[in-house]
Every structure is written in C-alpha cells, then in structure tokens.
Specification:
single chain; mainly alpha; about 625 residues; Serine Threonine Protein Phosphatase 5, Tetratricopeptide repeat; Arc Repressor Mutant, subunit A
Length: about 625
C-alpha cells in the first residue's frame, strides 16, 4: 500500500488526570459508607469523608460507586454543602468517561450547575466549569473545550488546578494536530505535578507526552516516557492509568517489531478492561491485536478482532473507534487483495468520519486507501482526486514541521531540568551509564536524525514523482464527457451542442491563449448566449468559466514543459494565456498538485511521453461510438 496503512488506536485519557486507587475490598467500602447512611445526623465533614471513600472505590468498582454517589448527592443538597459538588461531579465525569457514557455525565453536570450556579463560590464554580471542558473534549468539541479552559485559566488557583488545565489543553491540542503546543502544555503539567508530588496526575501527563512522540514516530523517546508513566501508576495503583500505559506500550512494541511484548501488553490491558468494566480499553486493544494479526497475514483473525471492537464501539457510541475499525477493515482487505470489499469498508469509514468534528487526521488513511484502490482498478481520475485530498490533509497537519519545533521545545525542557532529576531519569531507564556511552548515544542520535532527514527528502521526491506520473497519465484521459441524460429528447440536448462548440473553440482554435478571454468572447465565438455557455460549462465540468479556461491553459503548459519548447517558465506562462505569475502558479498547483518548477525539474529526469496532437476531450458523438 502506497498511501494507506493499518491504523493503531492510541487511547488518550478523555479527561484531566485523576486519582484512581484500586479497591481492596468492596465490602469494606460498603460498610464504611453504610455507617454514615444509618446515622440520623450527617455533618458536612461526614459527606467529605464519604466522598473520599468513593474516590478510592470508583476506579475498581464504578457501578458500586455510582449507587452511593446518588445517595451522597441527596445529602449534599439536604445540608446545602455545595463545595462538595466539586468532588461529586469529578467522580461522575471520570466514571461515565471510563464506561463510554459521557453524555450521561454531561446531563448530570448540567443539572447540578444550572440549579446551583448562583450559590457556588468562585473556586467551586471554576472547578465545575473545568469538568464542562473535559466533557466537551470527550465529545470531540475541542475548540469549545479550549474556550472554557482559557476563561478559567486567567483566574488565580492552586498549582494542581492549573496543572490540570495545562494537561487538558495538551490533550485538546494533540487532537487538533498542533503537536508543538500540545507538548508545551504537557511539559508544564509535568513540572507542576512534580512540584506538588502528585504521582497519579504526573503519570497521566507523562503518558500524554509518550503519545505525542508516538504520533511523531519517535518510539524510543515514547518508550522512555511510557515507562515513567507506568512506574508512577503502579506506585499509586491507579487502575485506569495502568491499563492506559499497557495499551500504549503495546503500540510502541508493535511499531518496533517486538510482537511478543506487544501481544502481552494488549492482552494484559484487555484482561484488566474486562475485569474493571472498561469497554473503551477492551475495544482499543481488540483493534490493536487485529493489527498485529493483519501484519502477520492472518487476515481472518484480524477481521474477527476488528469486528468485535467495532461492535463494542457502536454499543457505547465510541465514534472515533467506529471510524478506526472501518479503516483497519479496509486496510486488512486491501492487503488480502480483496479490493472490492476494501473499497466498501473505506467508504463506510469516510461516511462515519463525517460525524466527527475537527479531526482531519482520520481522513489521511481513508483517502490514501481509496487512492490505492482506484489506482489498481485503473480508475486514474478518481485515484487522482483522492490523492489530492490526501495531500491537502497531510499538508494541513504538517507533521514534519511539528517534529523540528518539538525537538526545540524538548531541548529547552531537558536543559531546564535539575541535575538531580536528570540523574534519576538516567538511573531508572539506563539512558546513560557513562560519559563514553553518552558520547556514543549522541553520535547515534545525530546519525539517526541525518538519516531521517535524508529519508524524508527521498520520500517527498518519490511522492512528487508519483504525482508527476499521474499528471502525465491524465493528459491522455478524457476529462469531459457530455452524455445524454434520460430526459433528453431525440433531437438532442441544446446544452450538449453548446458544450461541444465551446470545446472546439478552446481545443482546436486555442482561444484560451488570449489572456483577456472572457465569457462574452466565447459566447460570440460560438454564436450562443452567455446563459447557455455558463450552464453548459457548469453542468459538464462542475467548474466556473475561469477555472475551466485555466484547465486548458495548464494542460498546454504541462505539454510545453515536457517538450522543452520554451526555455523559461515565463515564456510558457505567456504562451498558454496567462499574463502574470501569481494566477499561473495558483492554477498550476490547483490542477497538478505541485508548482511549475517542481513539474519542470521532474520532467528533466523522466522519459518524455509521446503526445498525440488530437483533442483530449471526447464529444458526445465520439463517446457514443
């Protein structure tokens, strides 16, 4: 596959980091809570104690905790102990997020805030607003989440509060594709959590940095942060973070071809996900296991895992998971050379992706897969259309630019670390055992970076060569085929006749070489009227007049460049009917996907194609024959 590939599901925490200690004994929690439930008088202090117990129990026993939170909510209202609503809504959001039922959390959060907004103190109000930002992020409304966070970030608060804001901003920006800013906020969160000694929150922030580096393809650095995240999660027995880190470490091992370690990590996460009722974890790791089987060419097993994951994602309305499973089903069938079925899955992925807002990265493997399929089928027109969409999305995300910017940020952060912290990291993960090893490591990094730059340049050049080849092929492909519609009469369609005459005027008489050509000139040239000319062009090409004329000019420009008839691009520009550089370059890029200079450079290194000097556009009569 040239452009499509299997897609791993990197599971991000859907909310700010949180305490999630494992429950030792649900009976003990129940007895402790029942002690207060049987009391005739419940103080505010008692309510706080109850919330401390549910904070310890929810990670391992979410349904048990939800039942008791319902009782605690009534006590909060009875005592008018409104500050306790902060801990209450935090736990509600975390639990329903883990269960894949974030809409239920949104409903409860809205009920509480709407009823008690005027009575809440400023700190409590800001904390609950933060949970609205969390929920918006869970729902894919990242811009809305960022807006809320900006509003509350301007007010005074504790280091823990602002660390959580930085974490959530990093999470949102990662989803939006701004990896530079995502890393900046994540590192700020790490520093703040270290300053207050909060290992649970620190674990989540480290795992987010790991995920950012995974997206950048730097799996060695990702593994370092992932191991740190797992270490802190195990120390505080945070069930959710342990599952998250196992999942994401499995991805790293898979990408570095340590398949046994990857399978172990995925199966460990699935086992914990089932035990602690985490459908998102189960769905994610079923998908990732499917990826491994697909890479091992065990296509049937891979499809079974993808379909099981898809079923869970549909049941719990995990739309991103639905899209990713369809992408992987399409990729799996493509690799198995079942192209018809692969096309069905990719188009289903494209349909489902429309339900997700502000996540263009999902479109990359979809457009890439469809490009591959249509190219194999020989449908170069559709292949080129999807390839252009593929290029537009990759240019928008601009991963390579983000890599260099993030390297700069990471360098500044590493420099700012205290010597004692650097020593601890080096000891824990054996990054550097001696000065000699450090020197070797730096040399290897330099070699890897140099090789990466060379590989990227080779990759970009290959992509341009593919695009150049498609442009050459399209010079031979009929583009506009005016065919009779079912409603046409025997005497013919007036618009079809008008369009044929327009084509003749442009192709045979080369009217487009006139830089001042207007629609009125064309109208007079074929003895028609402006309305018919405009309708004919719109109906048969889906272009406006200017783009339609520029299409012919650019085709002519490509032929001049290949034939080397003119020495300079300026000469070609004027010969084709352009009278200034900017419109020529814009039109050339629009219809070819590259600049005139890139096209010219490639033409020098490619064999010159033979052009038949005939009309590239079939008329209706010729098409019928």
């Amino acid at each position: 596959m040239k452009y499509a590939s299997y897609l791993i599901l990197i599971l991000l925490l859907g909310s700010a980091p949180h305490y999630g200690q494992s429950a030792k004994d649900t009976v003990a929690y129940s007895k402790s809570l029942q002690k207060w439930a049987n009391s005739s008088e419940i103080s505010n202090k008692d309510i706080d104690k109850m919330l401390e117990i549910t904070e310890q129990s929810w990670s391992a026993y979410p349904d048990f905790t939800l039942r008791h939170l319902g009782k605690i909510r009534k006590l909060i209202v009875k005592n008018q102990h409104l500050p306790a609503f902060v801990a209450y809504v935090n736990q509600i959001v975390f639990i329903y997020s883990g269960k894949g039922e974030i809409r239920e959390a949104e409903k409860i959060l809205t009920e509480v805030y709407k009823e008690y907004e005027d009575d809440l103190d400023p700190d409590s109000k800001a904390a609950i607003q933060f949970q609205f930002a969390t929920v918006a992020s869970e729902l894919g409304q990242y811009d809305e989440s960022m807006k809320i966070l900006e509003d509350i970030d301007s007010r005074p608060g504790t280091p823990a509060f602002h660390a959580s804001i930085h974490f959530q901003k990093g999470l949102n920006l990662h989803h939006l594709g701004d990896l530079k800013k995502a890393l900046t906020h994540s590192l700020k969160a790490v520093d703040l959590y270290k300053s207050i000694g909060n290992k649970t929150y620190l674990s989540a922030a480290l795992d987010l940095i790991n995920i950012i580096y995974q997206k950048l393809g730097d799996f060695d650095k990702a593994l370092v942060y992932s191991k740190q995240a797992l270490e802190h999660a195990l120390q505080v027995q945070d069930i959710d973070m342990i599952m998250h880190t196992y999942s994401n470490m499995g991805i790293i091992y898979k990408e570095t071809e340590r398949m046994d370690s990857a399978i172990y990590a995925y199966e460990k996460a699935i086992e914990m996900g089932k035990r602690y009722e985490r459908p998102i974890i189960v769905a994610q790791n079923l998908l990732n296991l499917g990826n491994i089987f697909a890479n091992m060419k065990r296509y049937s097993e891979a499809e079974n895992h993808f379909l099981k994951s898809l079923e869970i994602c549909r049941e719990f309305n995990l739309q991103e998971g639905v899209v990713m499973n369809y992408i992987n089903l399409g990729s799996n069938q493509f690799t198995a050379e079942n192209y018809a079925k692969s096309e069905v899955f990719y188009k289903k992925a494209l349909e489902e992706s429309q339900k997700i807002t502000e996540v263009p990265e999902y479109l990359i493997p979809i457009y890439g897969g469809l490009t591959d399929i249509y190219e194999i089928k020989g449908d170069y027109k559709n292949a080129f259309e999807y390839f252009k969409k593929y290029q537009e999305i990759t240019d928008k995300i601009n991963i390579e630019q983000a890599k260099s910017e993030i390297a700069e940020i990471q360098g500044k952060y590493d420099t700012a670390l205290k010597d004692v912290e650097i020593a601890k990291i080096n000891k824990d993960f054996e990054i550097k055992k001696s000065e000699n090893k450090a020197l070797i490591y730096l040399i290897l990094v330099g070699v890897v970076l140099t090789a990466s730059i060379i590989l990227f340049l080779i990759y970009r050049n290959n992509q341009l060569k593919i695009l150049y080849k498609k442009n050459i092929e399209l010079l031979h492909v009929p583009q506009f085929l005016p065919a009779k519609s079912e409603t046409e009469s025997e005497s013919g369609n007036p618009l079809s006749k008008v369009f044929e005459e327009i084509i003749h005027l442009l192709e045979k008489e080369k009217a487009y070489q006139n830089p001042n050509l207007t629609i009125n000139d064309v109208t007079q040239g074929i003895n028609s009227n402006q309305k018919y000319v405009s309708l004919a062009i719109s109906n048969y090409t889906q272009m406006n007049f200017n783009n339609f004329v520029n299409y012919f000019r650019i085709n002519e420009a490509k032929k001049h460049i290949i034939s080397q008839e003119y020495q300079t691009l300026n000469e070609i520009m004027y010969a084709c009917g352009f009278n200034s550089r900017t419109p020529f370059y814009n039109a050339f890029n629009k219809f070819t996907g590259m600049s005139p200079k890139q096209f010219k450079d490639l033409s020098k290194s490619q064999p010159e194609p033979a052009f038949e000097r005939k009309m590239d556009v079939l008329t209706e009569g010729e098409f019928q024959k």
